Structure prediction request, 135 residues.
Amino acid sequence: MHSVNFDVNNQMVVKNAISPAAARAASTNGTAIDCARTGAGSQRVKSVTFAFTTGTLTDGTYTLSIEESDASGSGYAAVPAARLSNSVGTIAATADDTAYSLSCMPAKRYVRLVVTAAGTTTGGIYSATAFLHVD
Prediction:
C-alpha cells in the first residue's frame, strides 16, 4: 500500500481576504495579507491563492486582480502577469454561486485581492479566502 506524506496544516496558512457582507455596489480592496513568516521554524510563503466566491450578483460586472506592497496600508501596485498563475476575466452578474481562483508568487511583503465593479447599482454578494503556500 502506498503512503502519502503530506500535512496540509504545515504547508498552508488560510486567511480571510474579503469578509462576506451585504451586497456591494462599489469596488473592494481586500484585506492586506502578510506574507512574512517570522519566528522559530518559520517558512517562506512561495505563493498565494485567492478563492473568490459569489453569492447573488444582481447587476454589473466584476474583475479580479492581485496587488502587492511593502507596506500594509499604502503603495499597492498590480502583481505583474509573469508572477500570476492564471487570470479570471470579467465576472458577469449571471455568475451567481460560483467559485474562482487566482494565484501569484508574491515579491513583496503584503498582497491583497482587488474586486473592480463596473455598471453596478445594487451590486452583489461575494467573499474571498487567501491560501498561503509555504515551503
User: Anything to note?
Assistant: Residues 14-134 form a domain with the Jelly Rolls fold (CATH 2.60.120.1110). The radius of gyration is 16 Å.
